[in-house]
Write a structure and sequence with these properties.
Thrombin, subunit H; 2 helices; 40% strand; 16 strands; mainly beta
Length: 237
């Protein structure tokens, strides 16, 4: 798996609460996920495309009127974050909202971004703390990531939201920060640059958040069930 080779100790020490404009870096292209293969989503109103300083960067989901869920590594340096929420097309439609606050999980690849404008329903139906997946179960991955491996990923980011089917290989894997993750292997597509922070769905619920991928056959998604109480405590959902 492609992951960051070093992580600042401060990021791992404790829950971080920071202004969006003061702490965010572009997604590292050596570790983040893209949907190669799969197809285009026809109906997915929960999606949010994450832009860093106006440039397409990661994927995310809207989970409440003022809250977006994404990967911690998508919001880890200096910059401004905006989101196009509720549209399959990252260039138009939906709502454009700007992040005002970031809450990072202390040890898992999860982050909550509070936005300054109220978003309209529907919101992603998150897995509960007792909702799990099983080995061999088919799950869906969503994102706007790159669709190629033979050129810079920024040149082939998907304009429209894509979806791929994958199979669970380990419901107790690890994300890049050592948090609990759902590990999957490719069926008709896989995640890797630009899909980071995007959702994994199983049986109509969001069960994971994209963390790492080998860009060929395997990906790891931070497991929402493990961190459900943290999401509820901080975002109220």
């Amino acid at each position: 798996m492609r992951v960051l080779t070093a992580i600042a100790g401060a990021l791992l020490a404790a829950l971080s609460l920071a202004p969006v404009t003061a702490s965010a870096a572009p997604e590292d292209p050596n570790m983040s996920p893209m949907i190669i293969g799969g197809g285009y989503a026809s109906n997915f109103p929960y999606a949010a495309r994450l832009f860093f300083n106006g440039r397409e960067n990661c994927s995310a989901t809207k989970i409440a009127p003022r809250w977006i869920l994404t990967a911690e590594h998508c919001v880890s340096g200096n910059g401004t974050y905006t989101f196009r929420a509720g549209s399959l097309d990252q260039t138009s439609g939906g709502q454009l909202v700007t992040g005002t606050r970031i809450i990072k999980h202390p040890s898992a690849d999860l982050a909550l971004v509070q936005v300054g404008t109220t978003m309209t329903a529907p919101f992603s139906p998150l897995a509960g703390s007792s909702d799990g997946v099983t080995r061999g179960q088919t799950v869906q991955l969503y994102g706007w990531g790159a669709t190629c491996t033979n050129q810079p990923e920024i040149n082939c980011q998907s304009r429209y939201l894509k979806v791929a089917n994958t199979s669970v290989t380990n419901p107790n894997g690890s994300d890049y920060r050592g948090g609990r993750a759902i590990s999957v292997q490719r069926i008709d597509g896989i995640a890797a640059g630009g899909d980071s922070g995007g959702p994994m769905f199983a049986a109509g619920r969001q069960v994971g958040v994209a963390s790492t991928s080998d860009r060929a056959t395997r990906s790891n998604y931070t497991r929402i069930a493990t961190y459900r109480s943290w999401i509820t405590t901080n975002a109220g959902v």
